[in-house]
Design a protein that fits this description.
386 residues, alpha/beta, Rossmann fold, seven-stranded parallel beta sheet, 14 helices, binds nicotinamide-adenine-dinucleotide, binds (2R)-2,3-dihydroxypropanoic acid, D-isomer_2_OHA_DH_cat_dom
Length: 386
Amino acid sequence: MAKPISIEVYNPNGKYRVVSTKSMPGTRWINLLIEQDCRVEICTQKKTILSVEDIIALIGDKCDGVIGQLTEDWGETLFAALSRAGGKAFSNMAVGYNNVDVNAANKHGVAVGNTPGVLTETTAELAASLSLAAARRIVEADQFMRAGLYDGWLPHLFVGNLLKGQTVGVIGAGRIGSAYARMMVEGFKMNLIYYDLYQSTRLEKFVTAYGEFLKANGEQPVTWKRAASMDEVLREADVISLHPILDKTTYHLINKESLATMKKEAILVNCSRGPVVDEVALVEHLKQNPMFRVGLDVFEDEPYMKPGLADMKNAVVVPHIASASKWTREGMATLAALNVLGKIKGYPVWGDPNQVAPFLNENAPPPAASPSIVNAKALGLPVSKL
Ligand SMILES: NC(=O)c1ccc[n+]([C@@H]2O[C@H](COP(=O)([O-])OP(=O)(O)OC[C@H]3O[C@@H](n4cnc5c(N)ncnc54)[C@H](O)[C@@H]3O)[C@@H](O)[C@H]2O)c1
Ligand SMILES: O=C(O)[C@H](O)CO
């Protein structure tokens, strides 16, 4: 028999049972559910990654909706269990939902939510931080100081790369990729080259306008280019940041061949998903090219790193914290809870998942809608007017 899972319960007499597989930041999300007659159960098990069996035990016999995490494998088994328990809604507390089998959710009539928009700037800021940390060798220099090795200023000590005037390459210029591009262009006056399946007209207009502003002020204008292929970005950019979704078209997008295409002193940043990069090939490339640097927030086999990566001085590594600002994490929890609540209450789906601000205003009740349901069309859910 499966071991019982420890939980914390809010509003025990609530009509609808909503389970969160993790404690999430803030209390607004709990209050919003309680106000709408939900009993909220939060898993308090001291185990970072829950197994499918753990989550089946949490779902139990009656469950109206679940808020889950990107570390969980939401496939046929879990959606079948949720549907058997009468559940109609699941939301990832994440914008990326590569851990979710949406076809299985469709089969069981379960709405799948995600949390776009609220993490765009926070994630882009971490990508910018990793770009700078790699360019200016901040982690290496910090370790050197703490080791007591600094015995005076030297002309060659931790010389890195100047970003101004260089080219930033963005692969996947969606919400986060575009926000990162703007930061690097505006903040460091870098020229932009990007590759995406779609044209990012707003981003192009921004760079054009900023270039004109610089020119009018007697400075070198910045430029932009939409690349016809990813290889063009890899060849031309000095700093390359990866921001696509993870699917079969982006799995190992960066591999031995693509790494070889990049400049020997380029910087590669990954704040998307680990498997977008072939990490074994990356470790080998870092070994062969000491001037090549990386900033990684995500890893192919999280929570592990591929052998050798931890020893590489030319790698800056952080544990999947790109969305970890207080405001963003509280907002993600709110959006995830409202996705589930909206489906339970029979509300329509919000018309534009890129405009989620009304759900995040703490001083006003949220709209009666689910902010972002990725399979709304497949399930034929009604869409709200903005
Ligand atoms: N590290 C983190 O903590 C963290 C935080 C937030 C998001 N993410 C990841 O970032 C991803 C992007 O988030 P977003 O909100 O910007 O999503 P988005 O949908 O706005 O942007 C993704 C972009 O990738 C493009 N794309 C898809 N396939 C591509 C391909 N084969 N080649 C080039 N471009 C391609 C899309 O056209 C789109 O413009 C998420 O799916 C998630 O996996 C990670
Ligand atoms: O996809 C996401 O939202 C992140 O990886 C976690 O913030």
